[in-house]
Amino acid sequence: MRKIKLIWDFRGEAAAKTAEHHDIHLKEYLEKEKITLEKTGFEIINEMHAIAFIVVEEKDMITFRDVLKPHRGEVYTAN
């Protein structure tokens, strides 16, 4: 089954801190809903752009998209 990486983009001088904080909220949501997923996290793209993300199975993508409202998504490939 393919996995989808749902992504929230943050830009500006506070992007890294904002993405890190958003990741905390994603983890809190998963804990509250008792959902276990493969991966959540945040990445610093450059000094003015960072992302928070959650990886879900493709079959569950619509549900997570509608509840969490990510900015975009892409097919997940493990590094």
TrEMBL record:
Domain of life of the organism encoding this protein: Bacteria
Protein's name in the database: Uncharacterized protein
Organism, scientific name: Flavobacterium lacisediminis
